[in-house]
Request: fold
Amino acid sequence: MFQALADPNRRLMVQRLCEGPASVSELAAPFEMTLSAVVQHLAVLEGAGLVRTQKIGRVRTCQLDTQALQAAERWISERRALWERRFDRLGAFLAEQDAKEGDGA
Reply:
């Protein structure tokens, strides 16, 4: 999933899909790339579980899979909480060291 989101064009597509479903043509409109390239980017997003597509007639509509993003958000939040605890402990340790140096120890 993170590899799929590493590309700035795919992130922009996901950002657009946060507003609601869109056809492939609508997603392609702001990009200066071929429709084929847009479809390839969408295939990567779909393979990562971030986007679902449905073809009705000649129109392929894309929709964001919010569960996948929620899973990524949980993972990131867990990492953030871990590092915040570590930085808090480091801050407390450094404050203790400063206090000891200030006491002449």
